[in-house]
UniProtKB/TrEMBL annotation:
Its cofactor is [2Fe-2S] cluster. SUPFAM superfamilies: 2Fe-2S ferredoxin-like. It comes from Crotalaria pallida. PROSITE patterns: 2FE2S_FER_2. This is Ferredoxin.
């Protein structure tokens, strides 16, 4: 069985990952063995070792609004917090979606994010916990106070 086998490509959450692995000539046997094992032991999609190889980390994010309203949802580490919130049905203020304005500004109460693509906040503001959810990617479970634009 090779990586081009449709069953393996379909089992992988990201075909581009499988294509990249094949192009790089990395040993495919591990993926084939994981696929066979998931079928042999009847793993569900969520606990299949093959899926674990292809899956991204997912973190719990809690947003606390100015009135104390809490919204909690899961956010993959490859999805910005604003997009993950919207995917979960949570509305947040936003405008530029590129980290250049302060419309979505929040303040991190706990956890960590990667917001290396933002261009608005300086080191002092980042040190005070300010984050731009439109370009912030979770790196752990997070609690963020939203609607902080007036603090800016």
């Amino acid at each position: 069985m090779t990586i081009e086998t449709p069953e393996i490509k379909n089992a992988c959450l990201s075909t581009s990952i499988c294509d990249h692995i094949n192009q790089q000539g990395i040993i495919i046997n591990y993926f084939v063995d994981a696929f066979k094992m998931s079928r042999q032991f009847h793993f569900t999609q969520s606990d299949s070792p093959f899926d674990m190889l292809c899956a991204m980390a997912v973190y719990n994010v809690k947003l606390i609004g100015p009135d104390g309203t809490e919204n909690e949802f899961e956010a993959p580490d490859d999805t910005c917090i604003l997009d993950a919130a919207e995917n979960a049905g949570v509305e947040m203020p936003n405008l530029c979606r590129s980290g250049a304005c302060s419309c979505c500004l929040g303040q991190l109460a706990s956890g960590s994010v990667d917001q290396s693509n933002q261009s608005l906040l300086d080191e002092q503001q980042i040190g005070m916990g300010y984050v731009l959810p439109c370009v912030s990617y979770p790196k752990s479970d997070c609690v963020i106070y939203t609607h902080k634009e007036s603090d800016f």
